[in-house]
Design brief:
With 304 residues, this protein is α/β, with parallel strands linked by helices. The protein has 2 domains: 86 residues, no CATH class; 198 residues, Uracil-DNA Glycosylase, subunit E (3-Layer(aba) Sandwich), CATH 3.40.470.10. 38% of the residues lie in helices and 8% in strands. The protein has a 6-stranded mixed beta sheet, sandwiched between helices. A hairpin with a 2-residue loop joins β5 and β6. The longest helix has 18 residues. The chain is globular, with a radius of gyration of 22 Å. The chain starts with a helix and ends in a 9-residue tail after the last helix. About 9% of the residues have low confidence. The structure holds uracil. Uracil binds next to α7.
């Protein structure tokens, strides 16, 4: 793995665990291995502008290609560098929960009307340009997949490349694992409803930004109100964060029931995280077993 990919994998891993504010890496409360703390420090070091080669050391390049940090005096002497580097001082705000975004509906949409009601939400979204993701290389708006009358809904983070190409959520590798998880619960994919926090692919498969997620929430909220599931499974920290309006680690959210839009919400690992760290599959299965118990589902008999 090239260093960039390795770093990206670390960042994804931490994000899945609900650690957002990586620029708070010096916070002693965030327990990171020293090696990772150093990698993050190197990656978030402000770059030296290419326009100021004279400020770089003329000594032979060392094995560490990162140039030394500039002194304030050196920075002052170059117009190109007189603009201070961005300072990431404000952490991601705590988002509003789906329950505080809008009052709960006074009436449940009758089962027979749900397809049309969901089509109306899709029509309202249109060729959406409400948030920056519209201009970030998206090809398709990924609305949802599954049964409009499902008792069980899965909410992920946002489309990846496969979903962006096909227009359906969870069809790539993570989707195959989600299909297996659904089958292990004794259900078919067509019997559940699957959607995401954002409907457009974030570039480079990064997590949706606060403004993207909170702009898109209004539509997922309507979908939940129409489908009216008994249980929602939040897949990963992003889904849990925005559905519940919390900023907590995944570990602290698993193993207990939450609520959103009248549904019970269980939090578990995102399938993409489980692909990266298959050792956690057993823990995810515990979460799904709690969901099954709540819904009175029994697993299919194992093939011997
Ligand atoms: N990951 C998600 O969170 N959603 C998808 O639809 C695909 C991958």
């Amino acid at each position: 793995m090239v260093p960039e990919q390795q770093l990206r994998a670390y960042v994804d891993y931490l994000r899945d665990m609900g650690i957002y504010d990586l620029y708070h890496r010096d916070d002693p409360k965030i327990l990171l291995p020293d090696s990772l703390r150093e990698k993050l420090a190197a990656a978030t070091q402000p770059p030296v502008a290419a326009a100021a080669p004279a400020l770089r050391s003329s000594a032979a390049p060392s094995s560490n290609p990162r140039p030394p940090a500039l002194t304030p005096a050196a920075r002052q002497s170059s117009p190109a560098l007189s603009v201070p580097p961005p300072e990431f001082t404000s952490p991601m705000p705590k988002p509003p929960s789906f329950d505080t975004l809008a009052p709960l509906p006074s009436k449940i949409v009758p089962a027979a009307d749900r397809v049309a009601a969901l089509e109306a939400v899709r029509a309202e979204i249109g060729d959406c340009t409400r948030c920056p993701l519209a201009y970030a290389g998206r090809h398709t708006i990924v609305f949802a997949d599954g049964d409009p009358n499902a008792r069980l809904m899965f909410v992920g983070e946002g489309p990846g490349a496969d979903e962006d190409a096909s227009g359906l959520p969870f069809v790539g590798k993570a989707g195959q694992l989600l299909n297996n998880m659904i089958a292990a619960m004794g259900l078919k994919r067509e019997e559940v409803y699957i959607a995401n926090i954002v409907k457009c692919r974030p570039p480079g498969n990064r997590a949706p930004e606060f403004v993207e997620a909170t702009t898109c929430s209004q539509f997922l909220l309507k979908q939940i109100d129409i489908v009216h599931p008994q249980v929602i499974v939040a897949l990963g920290a992003t889904a849990a964060t925005y559905l519940l309006g919390v900023k907590q680690s995944l570990a602290s959210l698993r193993g207990q029931w939450h609520t959103a839009r009248g549904a019970k919400v269980a939090v578990t690992y995102h399938p993409a995280f489980l692909l990266r760290d298959p050792r956690q599959k057993g823990e995810a299965w515990k979460d799904l077993q709690r969901v099954m118990a709540e819904m009175g589902l029994t697993p299919p008999p194992r093939n011997s």
